[in-house]
Amino acid sequence: MGCSILHALACRGLKKAILLESEILSFGSTGKSQGILRIHYSNELTSRMTWESLKVFKFFDEVVGGDSGYVKAGYLLISGQGQCDAMEENVAMHKKIGFSTEMISSGRVRDIAPAFSVEDKEVCAYEPESGYADPYLVNHGYATAAKKLGAEIHVSTPVEKIEVNGGKQRQGVWCDDNQQALFRHVPQWLPPGHGPVLFLNPWESYYLWR
Prior knowledge:
Blueprint (H helix, E strand, L loop, with lengths): L1 H10 L6 E3 L8 H4 L3 E2 L6 H15 L1 H4 L11 E5 L4 H14 L4 E3 L1 H7 L10 E5 L3 E2 L2 H14 L3 E3 L6 E5 L3 E6 L31 H4 L1
Parallel strand pairs: 1-7
Antiparallel strand pairs: 2-6, 3-5, 4-5, 8-9
């Protein structure tokens, strides 16, 4: 998340976009993620967001640069008969969004994934375009692209405190004793009334991003 936000800020012309990482990139949840890509959610907004995100992963080299490791493996959702109406509603909503998905029979599931044990009374939805990507490649792709746009990434730089003046103007971001001078002031690019400032924690090679 941190590197994708950094990249988005740099793409929008922020002249001094900085990411402070307490360890190295992909050290946190990114490095532990399975990278599953799916859009089957009951919330339409979430489904729309994941649908747009899937397009980025599929065409990552064009949109960001580099390889996302996207593999179109498909995604199966299997549930009990009592969830049939809800699943049908979700599938209809996903089709309205424009995503390729459908309700399929248990026999079709066995054709797609012979190792699965599925009962005839269970209900199943299938998304052929879904799959998985490589979180490490994606994170580093965003980081590399952001740096090319002028953003800065500082690893092994935990934030100790953020000084605030009057609850509005951010006065400075303080790290450990060796790096206070680098970030003593976060100046005019954060104006009074600016929204939340995010200092996020995904890992990366210290020597690559220092």
